[in-house]
Amino acid sequence: MQILLCFGTRPEAIKMAPLYHELKKNNLDVKVCVTAQHREMLDQVLDFFDIVPDYDLNLMQHNQTLNILSANILSKIDEVLTAVKPDLVLVHGDTTTSAMVALAAFHLAIKVGHVEAGLRTYNKNAPFPEEINRQFTSRIADIHFTPTAAATQNLLKEGIIEATIVETGNTVIDALLWTIDKIEDEHYSHLEIENLKKILPANKKIVLVTGHRRENFGEGFINLCDALLSVSARDDVAIVYPVHLNPNVKDVVYEKLANKDNIYLVPPVSYPAFVWLMQQSYLIVTDSGGIQEEAPTLGKPVLVTRTVSERPEGVIDGFSILVGTEQQIIKDNIVAILDYFAGFKNPINPYGQGDASHKIVTFLLNQNQNEDTGSC
Ligand code: UDP
Rounded to whole angstroms, how far apart are CA atoms 335 and 327? Predict the structure, then answer.
């Protein structure tokens, strides 16, 4: 069975990396195509996980509209699919890359497997364009690898055939556990982590912050920065913020928070450095999906700067709180955690235990065997 993995952004690469290695370990014929929708942040991940793409469409352009990006992906991936003729294309989550690659594969009658399928807000504007990308990909996919029972239920309610849904957990936990093992190995040394150790003060509570969502551009990011500024007046706090490269984020954050006491702005850090930062943190403030999924494994509380999340499990289990983007509400919640949070007792991560890639590959191997022997 020839399998083609296609992805374009940092979070997709992190979540597809363990799957790539698991497919290789099982001697499956696997090729990788990146669209490089995020160039620099994607390359950091490829380096760390030792993945050399077979095809690199290099489609990142400054200020590219979603329509131009979509058109470019469709036309370039067509050439790759036609050349490779895979039996199965695996795409991930909710990016424009995933939706367009799925469409191109469908046009060529190539089967599509959707990893991290079934997440929903059912609000087409939140997040935009991700919610429509993931719904669109579900309409096309032949196999749906869901991370949780809630995601499975969403697909069943939409009429997806049960036999095509495989509940696996989220591969991000595989990537996280692999990375923790690596950075905790006494023989491993990472320059970025060493540098962070030098700049971050000891004995302060670290508030780790990230953000990148279009729905928060403008007022949302301004309010977040104002909330962080007021928290930074406390002497017991160090706010560490790896700032996303999108100018809609970067310009506002640097204008409001550069050179302020107790605030450390850094460019996006590599995955091992970010995992290390999460380990050091007292709490995390983010609009990121992946971080909501990773934090329970590390026992770190997350304040989600959104009003909806397609990842309700963490909120229901008490690992994360949806705080929106009102300055006072963000500030009050940060302060409440800094002053009163005493740790989670025996946290069990609702998003997975680190065996998702294994489950996906086991399913594919069984399916391959059934096809070879003509069963099913
Ligand atoms: N991450 C990283 N470096 C950073 C910030 C985040 O490696 O400076 C990782 C983080 O651990 C998570 C992923 O990037 O696995 C999340 O990416 P992002 O927030 O961009 O996207 P989302 O998860 O919301 O799709």
Answer: 12
